[in-house]
Request: fold
Amino acid sequence: MSRPPQPEPFLRGCAFDGTSDVPYPRAALAPPGDRLPADTLAAASLPVGVRFEWEGDARAVVVDYEARETDLGYRGDGAGRRFVLYRGLDRVDARPARLGRHRVTLSTGVGDGVRSLYLPEGMKPVVYGLVGVEGRLEPAPSRPRWLCYGDSIAEGWIATEPSLAWPAVVGRERELDGVNLGYAGSARGEVVSAEQLASLSADVISLTHGTNCWSRTPHSVGLFREGLEAFLRVLRQGHPETPIVAVSPIVRPDAEGTPNLLGATLAGLRACFEDVVGERVARGDAQLSLVEGAPLVRPDALPDGIHPGDDGHRALAAQLGPILARAARPL
Reply:
């Protein structure tokens, strides 16, 4: 594991071993990860959802870091240029990151509660150390692990900063250890991704993909059906009893009734997703549940017509958070 050892006990949201080039990968880079598509591997090199969490009475924290990138690509500033610190649900400080090796000090706020330090994800930072100021830092207690598989909407596009993506909001509000496996531009339900999810421990898993099966790599309805059935079959090999929350694609106005290269509309792919999940539940998979995606985000909450803005991410978190929390902590 090629990560600095000092802050490792504070690390959350990272389920895979790192390398010197990608310290916080969101996919396994060794086999079978080498069979992942190149666009998935590129998205997985960003530390989306990776954060450091602690308790203690330190009034501030000094972060020793190195930022390796300033070109944030299509996502721009929303990919993250600042370290952002929360105390529980309250955002208490934010400081800009700079290219290269530096230190930055953030206030931890007043009172009890877990502190969560979110990274400037687009700058691909590595954190070498966390030091408390006038007090101690203790690693936060473990929380139920949630594997969140999806596409750019799970990755956080186009929230104004990484901490406002719906998986980050759900993690804070519902006290889940979210592992963000949202791969912008990809996440088409590849079996290799199902193998990787199957290899990880989890208390709950969510699936939120399908849009890129309409556009980036066009699927027919039949191809999409076979792919989703295979994904679920492989996933269940590693997680025979783990709750899975399957969320069909949210609305995308330009794609709802528009056939892709193979004749499928997004509405058709969504119906197929819901049919596959419903059929599996009817066959006895009691730990699989369906959430219909179309009503979750209003079209006017999609600033670019595809991705939710901050309001849309809050809407997703408000509706999916309670479902995921109940699944992660069964009575």
